[in-house]
Design brief:
Length: 430
Amino acid sequence: MARPRSRRPAPSWLRLDNAAKIYPATRSRKWMALFRVSITLTETVDDTLLGKALRQVMKRVPLLSYRLKRGLFWYYFDWQEAQPEVQPDARNPMLPINLQENGGFLFRVRSFDKRIALEVFHALTDGTGGMTFLLTLAAEYLRLKYGLRVPEAPLILDTRDEPHREEWEDAFLRFARKETRPLGEETAWHLKGRRETHGYLHLITGIINTPALTALAKSRHTTVNSLLAAILLKSLIHARAKSRTRDKRPVKLSLPINLRRYYDSRTLRNFSSYVNVPVHAEYGDYSLEDLIALVSHTMGLETLEPLINARFSANVKAEQMHIIRVLPLFLKSAVLKMMYRAKGENYMTSTLSNLGLVKLPPEMAVYTQRLDLVLGAALKTPINCSAVSAVGKTTITFSKTIREAEVERVFFTTLIALGVPVTIESNWRE
């Protein structure tokens, strides 16, 4: 039962940001663009205290209070005076949120044993925003339980502060420039397999010692992100070869980019882009060093600020076209859905989203076992991968809607063969 509140420190309504507009149009009863972040503490979570912490965080982060509404021309966010309840976690996470049953909220906070999890509709925020919500919630929970004041950090807000209007801005609009870049690119090969039933999302998580992983990357003269991307490409190429496909389209790995690293923005909404790394497997065999070089070269080129800006500026320009703006919502949603099916997932085989190293304040780190990030899977990209590092552990999670385990098997055995031990967890069901 939602509880009333009496404070509205943000506008009564907001337009969806540029990246968010696609997600309401493409959701269905069976699929919704969700992602999940979680923190595992050293002691069992007290749900009563967690609920109190959530109410305090909702005051500091008013973005969480918005619900999705249909307008004549666009979906928009509408403020609501309510408070969501903490929900029990599930073995099968990331099922679509029934917004009506969820009080209109675009997220849910879940707990089980020592774990606090946040599942978020991507229309609301991206991985950085989601991790900020989660860690601020965890810090407030620790304050209530232990009288501990966790200092403000890059992904932790001080709940005593007032919300800042920049936190709910559409940063795409602020930083977009006039010159744009064509968005067309080569379509990708897609992995196929036996589908899991009833919306089951199969998760396989590898837990790795971060210093060991970092040392391996340094020995290969690369970054952790490029190393993981290269190993994932190697695994996808192996799966492609095993499928004996005649499809000549490239294996393409999509790598999200946090635009806050390039622009001075405090937004907690979506503000990310991506780089797709293609590999034409039919050209010959690629060594791990070849794939590292390919990832590093592509990322080095495609993450130049002018190129990044020209890419997302093209999306902003498309949104502002007169013919698009005047279309009624039902037609606009149909067009967006058609474009997504024709282009969106067609350009990628899989995604690797790495939030990188999250440096927790010592006051918080002592109570933390690990962080996790989980991506959803979709129709044409039935397997995705995510990673995050904290308190000396890196968790790498494969989320998938097919039963075959070839990609993650090759990925983790490759790491082990390179001298990095891996502990495996799964929600596998027989």
